[in-house]
Amino acid sequence: MLVSGYDMLGHLLLLQYWDELLLCHGLVLNDDLQRLLSKHEAIASGTSQAKSPQPEPAKELVNVNGPLIDT
After folding, report:
1. Residue 47 Cα distances to 37, 56, 60, angstroms
2. CA distance 71 to 67
3. What is the largest CA-CA distance in the chain?
4. Is the pLDDT of residue 47 over 60?
5. Of 49, 31, 53, whose CA–CA distance to 40 is shortest?
6. What dihedral do alpha carbons 54, 58, 59, 60 form, nearest 10°?
7. Share of the chain above pLDDT 90, in %
8. CA distances (Å), 37 to each of 9, 32, 42, 61, in order?
9. 3-state helix, strand and coil shares in percent for the chain, rounded to the nearest 5
10. Among 17, 24, 25, 37, which is most buried by a count of CB atoms within 10 Å?
């Protein structure tokens, strides 16, 4: 079976979309882990972070649930 150029382009766009989605999820997970690690270090050192303000969770830069291409 011969794959057309449009099929290949669609496949590449889908792969790029999933790569970017995984990257965004990985960055959010990294932020959460950094926050958890700093809490752990504060508890282990005896300092309290109970009164420090919590940073807002990261907001998505683009709508990852939207269409791949604006039509």
Report:
1. 14, 22, 32
2. 9
3. 66
4. yes
5. 49
6. -170
7. 30
8. 41, 9, 9, 25
9. 60, 0, 40
10. 24
